[in-house]
Amino acid sequence: MSTYTDQVRDYVHRYEQETGEVGLIDPHEVAAWAYRHGLIKPNTKTIIDAIASDISQVFREEHRTDSRGRRYRAKHAIKITKGNKQGSLWADIDDKNAPRSHFVRSFAERRRQVVGECVQLKTDVDVYNEKNLTSEPIQIVLDFTEDVDELLQKYEDTAEEI
User: Fold this and answer.
1) How far apart are alpha carbons 79 and 62 in whole angstroms?
2) What's the DSSP call for residue 90?
3) Residue 136 DSSP code
4) Distance CA 113, CA 91 (A)
5) CA distance linking residue 103 with residue 92, whole number of Å
6) In the prediction, which pLDDT does 49 show?
7) What are the residue boundaries of the structural domains of the chain, listed by start?
8) Global pTM exceeds 0.85
9) Model confidence band, residue 68 (pLDDT cutoffs 50, 70, 90)
10) In this predicted structure, what is the pLDDT of residue 1?
11) CB crowding 23-56: b at 16 or more within 10 Å, else e
12) Torsion 138-144-146-148 (CA) sign
């Protein structure tokens, strides 16, 4: 575990003790508290990383609508490693200069993320159910076929109305 991670855990714990906040924690509140108390002093790298994170968030949220009325994500990322630093490269789905290989890789990475989220969700539900044996178990369906079909039908119905 990194020293920075340990420092963050330490000041989150201190925040909880000093403010009495427990249960629900707002990371922005903790960050503001830590900054006010001089526990974290942003350096140039931290500031650049924060701005880059904001740019990535803007890219993630950019959507367009095609001629059939389908709303699609405009920008797609792949993970990269430069030296010992990880980052991402983004491409616009409408940019004819962006290589197909970028999108193949991006879609595969996103699919792995979805699968990973499903595995973690199932694990979390299983652990919750095992810790709460006196309650009715929470059931989670991980087959999304009907959900996807239903949402696609809504897009098709909306497109027909236009």
Assistant:
1) 19
2) E
3) P
4) 18
5) 9
6) 86
7) 61-161
8) no
9) confident
10) 55
11) eeeeeeebbebbeeeebbeeeeeeeeeeeeeeee
12) positive
